[in-house]
Specification:
Order of helices and strands of chain A: EEEEEEEEEEE
Helix content of chain B: under 10%
Distance between the termini of chain A: 37 Å
Order of helices and strands of chain B: EEEEEEEEEEE
Number of helices of chain B: 0
Radius of gyration of chain A: 13 Å
Number of strands of chain B: 11
Largest sheet of chain B: 6 strands, mixed
Largest interface: A-B, 26 and 22 residues
Strand content of chain A: over 45%
Shape of chain A: globular
Largest sheet of chain A: 7 strands, mixed
Number of helices of chain A: 0
Number of strands of chain A: 11
Shape of chain B: globular
Oligomer: heterodimer
Structural class of chain B: mainly beta
């Protein structure tokens, strides 16, 4: 059974650019959640997708957006990047909205 | 609303000594609680979880945690620290906001193991 995978592993962007991060959920999982972990902090919930619909959002501005595809993989898009967006972005999948979440290895984003 | 508080951002122990990492939770409903470990430049690895079954939960790598409702605590322990235990540890509670189940993490405790 393949676990949660994320791509890319690392990337560097400059302020004002846009970025797309990708997540492949674990087999059989229909729910994907995204978290942002700034340096020295715990992960913070960005939003969740369930069966291709956004199912809840944390305290993040609209320039953070996402998609979930029919195969339940997901993308996180961030527009107009700011320096404070530099963080580890974690994706987690689950087999239902209230089931245990399994985390991927993360994508480290650096904004210069 | 649910939340967790981790007491002590840094903890140092000697190799072979007891490890105790503290976590207190706040929840208006029976909580689901988790401990994760994060090694440098890596993602989160689940150590153990409490989902309202046994109050003493055993996890991987010799770690365990005890759920104490009266103290609203879920402290993580390991009888004998190993050098490889040096990492960041996060306590988390599952939060429910209008049907969205999300994990709410503490700020983390960095464990240092001294040889």
């Amino acid at each position: 059974e393949t676990g949660v995978t994320q791509s890319p592993t690392h990337l560097i962007k400059t302020r004002g650019q846009q970025v797309t991060l990708r997540c492949s959920s674990q087999s059989g999982h229909n729910t994907v959640s995204w978290y942002q972990q700034a340096l020295g902090q715990g992960p913070q919930f960005i939003f969740q997708y369930y069966r291709e619909e956004e199912n809840g959002r944390g305290n993040f501005p609209p320039r953070f957006s996402g998609l979930q595809f029919p195969n339940y993989s997901s993308e996180l898009n961030v527009n107009a990047l700011e320096l404070d967006d530099s963080a580890l972005y974690l994706c987690a999948s689950s087999s239902g909205q209230d089931n245990e979440q399994f985390f991927g290895p993360g994508t480290r984003l650096t904004v210069l | 609303a649910q939340s967790v508080t981790q007491l002590g951002s840094h903890v140092s122990v000697s190799e072979g000594a007891l490890v105790l990492l503290r976590c207190n939770y706040s929840s208006s409903v029976p909580p689901y609680l988790f401990w994760y470990v994060q090694y440098p430049n890596q993602g989160l690895q689940l150590l153990l979880k409490y989902t309202s079954a046994a109050t003493l939960v055993k996890g991987i790598n010799g770690f365990e945690a005890e759920f104490k409702k009266s103290e609203t605590s879920f402290h993580l322990t390991k009888p004998s620290a190993h050098l490889s235990d040096a990492a960041e540890y996060f306590c988390a509670v599952r939060g429910d906001t209008s049907g969205t189940y999300k994990y709410i993490f503490g700020t983390g405790t960095r464990l240092k193991v001294l040889a």
